[in-house]
Structures are given as C-alpha cells and as structure tokens.
What does this fold into?
Amino acid sequence: MYLSWQEAIPVTKRLTRQQSRELTREQLLQAAAELFAESGVNGTSVEQIVERAGYTRGAFYGNFDGKREIVLALLEQRTQRELEEMQALSQEAESFDGLLEHLRTWHRERDETLAGWLALRTELWLYGMRDPELLPVLADRERRSRAALAQALEQGFAARSVTPPAPVEFLALIMHSLGDGLSIQRVLSPEDSDADVVVDAVELLMRSWSALARQAPDTN
Amino acid sequence: MYLSWQEAIPVTKRLTRQQSRELTREQLLQAAAELFAESGVNGTSVEQIVERAGYTRGAFYGNFDGKREIVLALLEQRTQRELEEMQALSQEAESFDGLLEHLRTWHRERDETLAGWLALRTELWLYGMRDPELLPVLADRERRSRAALAQALEQGFAARSVTPPAPVEFLALIMHSLGDGLSIQRVLSPEDSDADVVVDAVELLMRSWSALARQAPDTN
DNA sequence: GACTTCAGATACAGTCTTGTATTGGAATAC
DNA sequence: GTATTCCAATACAAGACTGTATCTGAAGTC
It folds into this structure.
C-alpha cells in the first residue's frame, strides 16, 4: 500500500481548476470501474469509490449526483471505446486474414485482464438491462458493433469472391455473440482453452461458411 | 397484487414439520430467484426475500446462515436442473434433426421469460466467478454441459457418416458459447431476432461444418 | 494583494440492513 | 392429555450507507 496512484501519475502541481476537476472525475471513474468489476455495482459503496481514488465523499457528490450517474458516465465512456475499437477493426480488415490478425492481437492483449474486463462489462449489461432508459442505449451499441462487423465480413467475402451463405448481418450476429460466449467460458475455465480460442473459432466459422457457399451457392 | 402465491399453491393445512420446513425453504429459494433476477444479488436484502415469500426474517435465518448460503443453494438447484436438461438433450438427440427440434422447443418455451432467466443466470455467474470456492463448481457445470453436447454432436455426425471438421469438444464449446451470446443479444434487442435465432444459428453451423467436412475431410 | 469563487473535506441526521436473542405456538412424543 | 421439540415471529442492538449542509483552502479575478 506504499505505492498509491500519486506515485504512478505525475501530478503537476498547481493545476488549473478545470484540470483538477477533470482529473478527479477521471480517477473516480477509474476507481469505480475497478470496484464494479471486483464487487459489482450494488456491492460497491460511494465511500469505497472515493477511498480508492484517494478522495472523500465531498469530491464524489461534487462530480456526480449519485451512483446511478457514475454508472451512466462509465457506460458512456466504455461504449465509446468499444465502438472505436470495432470501427478500427472493420476498417483494417480488408481481408479475412487482416480481420483474424486484428482479433488475435486484441484477445492476446486482453487475456490477462479478461476476467475483470468481462465482469465490468457484465455488470454494466445487467445494470442497463434493468433500466428502461438505458436498455435502448445498450441495444444500440450492440447494433452498431454488429453493423461494423457485418461490413467487415461483407468486404472479406467480396475479396474472396464468395457469396455469403446467409445475410452478413446474421453472420455478424453469430460471430459477435460467439465472442461474448467464449469469453465467458474462458473466464470460467481458462485451462480448457487458450487466448486464441476466439480467433480459432472465428477462423473455423469463416472456413466453414466459405465451404458451404461454394458447395451450394444458391441454397440460402 | 390480489393473487399471491397462496392462491397458486394449494397449501394443505396440517403439514408435518418436515413438509413445512421444506415448503418454507422452497418458497424462500423461489422468492430469492425472482428478486435476484430483478435487482441482483447485492441489490436484494434478506428482508425483501422473506417479504415476497410471505415470511419474516426468523424463517430465513432458521433455514440459511446468510445471503451467501441461499445463493449457494440456488446455484446448486439451478445447476442440477441445467444438467438434467442437457442430459435430456444429449439422450434424445440421436440425429441433428432431433437435436434441433429439442433446441427449438426449449427456446420457444423460454422466450417469454428469457430476460429474467438470463439475468439470474448471469447474477449467479458473477457471484460464483468472484468466489474462489464457487468458481470450480461453475466451471465444472459448464464442462459437463459441453461434454453432453459434444456427445450429442458425435452421435449426430456419426449418423450422417460425416467426419467432424474439428474435435467435437471444440465444436461443442462453440455451440454452447453461441447459445449464451445470442441470448444476451436477444434480450438487448428482441426486435433484431426471433425466438428461433439460436436454432437457426446452430442449424447453419451444422450445415457449414458438414460442408467443410465433405470438402476437405483431411484438413483438420 | 485583496476579494471572490469553487473543488473538495468534514460533520451530521436519517434510513436501511444485518444478525442474534428471545418468545409464541403448533407438531411430535409419551 | 401432558410434556417436549422446534419452526417461525418478534424485538433489539450495532453497523453501514446515503445525501445534505457546512466549512476550508487554493485557484481565479480585478
């Protein structure tokens, strides 16, 4: 406990008010993200959040109206990041190989922190699912992700001159869902798979669909 | 709110002690399951559980040592049911068609309650994932499910005289994960799919894998 | 450099939650 | 029918959590 965030983040003394406020907000969000992953949204108190971030409750209520607000902000932040990642993927991937390579890198980089990452994602999912106002936001995020993936698939098939065996939107839905599901399984029993399991699975699907398309191009 | 469980469950007066205790326990578990799905494990108090079940806190602490205990019991109960379902599936499914038909029935029956069912499942998953003692239990459940599914696939391929394009365990892992992932997507945006989406996806996979196996039986 | 503003700390009142200790009453034993 | 057992209700004490109201000191303004 000797190394607190103060050592890790070079805090230039004499911050402007705005800088200070933004820094506080950011650190609160970061602390909340960690704690939500560790103990869940409902299992985390405001007190715990500010304690980990190195503040007191005053700082929290000055920046957020309550726990719901910080969850909202976190959801927005993570949604933004996720969409950017998805767009990066769909842009880079002009071929199946490019797409696979991108995926491989992504999963290998995140494998260490997969459990925490997935826990936070799941917590936000559950929270959003129960909030009538948030559900459409979440649904929209997934829809955009799938759309980006569908576009990538479209390009990939075109590059290989293969007619997809089903609408690319459906294929994207499958692939997207598979990523979630496999991550869950991987967190539960890491010894039953490796970091590349998602890539391997996706690759198998690609090959299978290509085979099916060649075998019966008019059957879908 | 006029119809409480008392109307639904015919309570024969003059219960034996054991019967009474079992009934209480069962009703507490049922109430907990509903509330956990609605508000999460950490978002549910013991008070709320006993209130919904129609008791007071005394009944709870007479049957469970605390919230962790009832979560444990619930996890065990649900695990048991799930394994039975999975075994039923792997027994019935002597062919792909049988397996698909079974799946179709299952998903259509549960579609109405999918959100609640998945929420509870996810809550238990998160809870178990964070408890070092429970994680292996959950992992074991998934492993058994996948094993049953793998067996069904094995039979299915054999019946068609097709060599699977990859180890059936891997195919089962994919299929199992896909079920989870697609359910998540379906809960988020029901209008983007229908109750049969899992079956449709699985069917596509089956056809694809068969096509791949026929195309290059020696490539795996 | 004095004044103002505002980010964050501190203090506090109120509510919710938990777990235990005790009690009442119905089932069981004889 | 009386005594005993034990399931569930009730009462209570202690602690956690929330949100607000107030205070302090550093940043911003002139």
Q: What stands out?
A: The two ends of chain A are 60 Å apart (CA to CA). Residues 17, 20-21, 24, 55-63 of chain A lie near DNA strand C (CB under 10 Å from a C1'). Confidence is low (pLDDT under 50) at residues 1-12 of chain A.
